[in-house]
Amino acid sequence: MLAEACDVVVIGGGPAGAVAGAILAAGGVDVVIAEQKVFPRQKVCGEFLSPGAFPVLARLGVLSEILDRAGPEITSLTMHPSVGLKIKAAMPCDGAGRFARGIGRHHLDTLLLDRARRLGARVLTPCHVRKVVGSSDQGFTIETDQCGVIESKLIIFANGRPPSDGQPTSHSKKMRQMVGFKTYFNQCHLGADTIGLYGCRGIYGGLLRTGDVGGEPRYNLAFVARRSVMESVAGANGLLSRLRQSNHALDRALADAQRVDRWHAWGPLWPGVRRLFDDGKFYVGNAAGEVQPLIGEGMTLAIRSGALAADTLALGLRGGAAPSEIAARYEVLWREDFSSRCYWGNWFASMMTNPVAGFLGSLLGQIRPLARWGVGASGKKFLAVSGTNIRSRTVRGNGH
Ligand SMILES: Cc1cc2nc3c(=O)[nH]c(=O)nc-3n(C[C@H](O)[C@H](O)[C@H](O)COP(=O)(O)OP(=O)(O)OC[C@H]3O[C@@H](n4cnc5c(N)ncnc54)[C@H](O)[C@@H]3O)c2cc1C
User: Fold this and answer.
1) Looking at domain 2-170+270-398, what is its CATH homologous superfamily?
2) Which end of the chain has less Cβ packing within 10 Å, N or C?
3) 113 Cβ inside 6 Å of ligand 1
4) Contact 151, 142 (CB under 8 A)
5) pTM
6) 159 C-alpha to center of ligand 1: Å?
């Protein structure tokens, strides 16, 4: 059964896929987004949305709706490594004076996918992609569980996973094979304008206020744990107890809090840069590269790389460029924007989970310019890049 035929199939309707599909559809490209889950759905995430994503969201016309559902502006960061001193740093804002926000993924992802639909993308959900065969020469055949077969000229993988044969080309050996957990608490002792990061050997996590529910503040607690630690601790509650026992700052923050949701788990995580292109197949978001959750840049990378791939593709398709030429441009721009975040993210994660690195890092973090530099190295120095800049850089890369 032939269900659909199109120019581009996007596999996955998370932030990367929804943004890529929305921008392609807005540019007149015939695009199908296949998403296996029915939205709204929960996603394991710390839900810290960095302002680096705002220009793309504004360009798509969804920024104000997203900010309406988000928590208060996050203007400061406190880091409590496993051993050592607390580090405090100010969070930078973007060129328009906007700060990061906490936003539930059930809101963000649903708004983005709806926007893609309204801009003309054909969104198939639930639609689990089972198999992809073909090449850029012959076109692709995509077999799905619920929607039959889809045929397309090109594919964007936005499925949040590395390709099955594509382990990261750069990653910290110690930090790979981590599993992530998320839940929500009420009544936490944490400033509404603050994100708290907490570490102990083999585990690190973050706490921040997301949008309120029924007038009551709601806090997201997300953490990652190494598999080796999980072998000796019983489940998410056991891991959280371990983190609280070792990190008194987190224990104080949760002293009067109650968990108001079940635990959600996701893994394994594979921080690092992967393949960005392979014969007509483009990779965006976590499928292309994964940053350490600690630095709160994963959604921004997903949103910006989705936009970058879509802009590059739309221009290339219009100009009759070969997929490999389009890919070369995409790769240069991707690495320029994201490579250093992947690298420094691993370094900061080691600092949170390794007592020696944590102690030394916390001493250095007392030097204010160094703490500021650390925030910048996590990616937040790119805040002023606007959606228009992304487009004009793509145009330059295209030689038009
Ligand atoms: C513990 C933890 C905390 C984090 N905290 C933060 C944070 O505070 N801030 C931040 O910015 N980032 C954070 N991240 C990272 C962030 O969640 C990811 O980087 C982001 O979700 C990547 O978006 P994506 O669109 O690439 O993939 P995803 O969000 O994973 O979306 C992929 C989509 O593809 C669909 N899919 C998968 N396979 C198929 C298939 N075969 N067929 C059809 N559909 C399919 C899935 O259902 C899913 O909806 C955190 C991650 C973890 C694990």
Assistant:
1) FAD/NAD(P)-binding domain (3.50.50.60)
2) N
3) no
4) yes
5) 0.91
6) 8
